[in-house]
Amino acid sequence: MHALWVVIDNIFFRAIADIACLKVRGDYFHETFTERIEKVKKLEPLATGLDISMAQLALAWCLKNPKVSTVIMGASRVTQVHENLKALEAVEKLTPEILAAIETILGNRPEEDD
Known about the structure:
mainly alpha
């Protein structure tokens, strides 16, 4: 069951990333599913090291982006809402070093505005 949640978290994380950053380097549609899973595997130790879930990492990453005014989280159960709201506490854990590590793994640092 854990592997399934990793896949779900990956899809969730990527969807959030695409919505949060309208200008993303690379071509999302040419990236294979296997490549995306490999990125998730590299992100998992970051989340574990911060003592947060992958979903919390994704939401905190979006919240940390100064260009994002609203983060919409999805949940089908009340427990998911409670877990997702813990992302608010996780934001302070995303240091510049952690953010740089995430950007290195994802390879999708937002382009700077002109």
